[in-house]
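Researcher: Go.
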Amino acid sequence: MIDFNLKKLAKTPHLPDKLTESVANDKHLTMLEVIKPYARDAALIEKNATPVYVDYKTRNSKVVFVLCPEWAPQFPPFNLARLSGICKSAGYESKIIDLNIKIYNIYRNDWQPNEKIPFRLWDPSGAWHWTSTEVYHDSIHPLLEPYLEEAVQEIMEYNADLIGFSIYYINEAPTRWMISRIKELNPSARIAVGGSNVQKGMFRRHDGYDYVVVGEGETAILKILDDIENKTEPEEFPALIVQPYNSKLSLNGMPLPDYESIDFSQYEIPNGVNTEFSRGCTAKCTFCEETHFWKYRQRKAIDILEEVEWLYYNKGTTVFWFIDSLVNGNVNELRAFCKAVEAKGLDIHWTGYSRCDGRMDLEYFKDLKAGGCIMLNYGCESGSQKVLDDMHKNVTIAEMEQNLIDGKKVGIYAATNWIVGFPTEEHQDFADSMTFLWRNRNYNINNVGAGVGLSQGQETIIGQNPKKFNIFDHQYQGHWITRDFRKGGVHVMHRVKSFHMFLDCINETMEQPFQYPYRINLAKEHYVVRYDDPSVIKEIDEYENFDYDIITPGINPFADGLVNEMWPFFRLLWQTRGGYTCEVLFKPEIDLKDFGSQFGPGTLEAVYKFRISAEGKWKADFMWDLKQPPNPYTFKPDAFIAQDYSRLMSHPAKRARKLAKPEWDAETGRDVDQFHRLIEDEKVLNNTIDFSFTYRYRGQGSW
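Model: Structure:
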């Protein structure tokens, strides 16, 4: 989701006056002087990185790069522009077809959610519709197919020797359809696929894929084109091109990205582009797959400045989004870049993904602002120090809050990302996250990425050592469950819904509300709140410790954890808004429609009726009815299914496993006996456990 402050900067590109040679030299010398204390030698920045060698020759082969929907429509696709620039510098004819922006512009203004597709097509909250093959082909594909077919015909007319597709987790279905259609019309067409989704160990290859690029694409695309140019066929198709385990490419000195076939006016921010400051991540957060894709390295401040300056003077580009995992992986080199921008007098605005970092003090933020930073997109994840430590975030709550405070002082906005329902997150920890947001809501937070809870990534530290994080070795109803059975998909969904409801309630109190994933039916069908006095807004001075285990029915661990899930929301709402009456519903027909099936098949029926006075006297009338249905993946009566990522052999999985230090062998994963025990345990669980329950609670108390 793009930040609205960046949208305010969207305008028709206007080329600045060209620099005279003498003025350019003066500014360059000034820049070198101001960045000297911060910039490091390239050999230190990119230790052991391999340069991308581009040998220009007159070539006959042509390549076309394609991006299918759905993806971000704000800027041109940098990854394809980077690859196209590499190819053209080597002498190959190259073209980019961005179907994502074309189809987005067709539906962006006229599309209205309806019964068949009750969500906005490009809204992050509707992403799960695109990843569900059944939902995509039933509801979305009929809208896309005419335009995908047009693109297929365009590709046929271009007569490319290689057609490259960038695959993300969300656009694989339309990509596969296009590839099948191309192969139908021209079976000899050569197809190459790459992108983040291809890196995953459980990526499923398609019959139409001729070349599968696992790793960075710059040298791989040149190798493929060189073979095609020389009519050298791989020994077998699909040809798997895998970047060596310890390899990393130098990001410095690459050819400029190629935007020749891109119409900037089609994008939401026509004066903006994506680019990169680094690749990889210095952190090793336990929930993250991306940090294991490749090794960290960064560009020199001067190298990135050359690209920025060329776009500024030749394309009128004034907005830059650094798409790195971590733009402040090296705080000194980032500061050097900002000093260089200021010295050069470039009137640009930029943002990027960032860690909260105690080394970034007020003076540092002043330099960021002077160098064009308008917003940092923080991976906050949690307001609980315990959970942050379990995530290996290596930051304190105090540092996070200070970054937000200092950002507001200098005028830098903050987008924040959150993981609700981390496996070690207790009710108190979840309350701390809501408390953090309330306490800091007026410190320039303008975007909250609320997410859909923690997904147990295959190639994460959590996925490679679930026991360390209290995750059971078997999924329950298609979602992870804790080893004590007190937290599973339906519990996490309670927190996700509570978090979204609390965001609604925060926004009601703000002069400039922030953005967050849009749940179109949330306030219509899921809950209602009536405040005794809507004008009441109370601050929270300190994080509190509170016992949220108010109900103790003794039914089973799953039920005993579930019945207390709503208390953090009810208490935080009272602490911040005073007395109120509230009703919250959980029903399969509304929950599956708005939150998807990632929490399980959705069989819970629950009603929470809650009333509390300004003084804290409350009454509760809660009802639950949960039925244990067949497994959503196997459609058998089995609720439990063995989950084993230990034997994935992808590079990211191996890197994650090395850090995770699981009980099984880090190189080979579970042995045969261990795996057989896992399967036997699955049978025992399905024969002995049923968490179905019906329960009603009526109670009262005083806070």
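Model: The longest helix spans residues 133-158.
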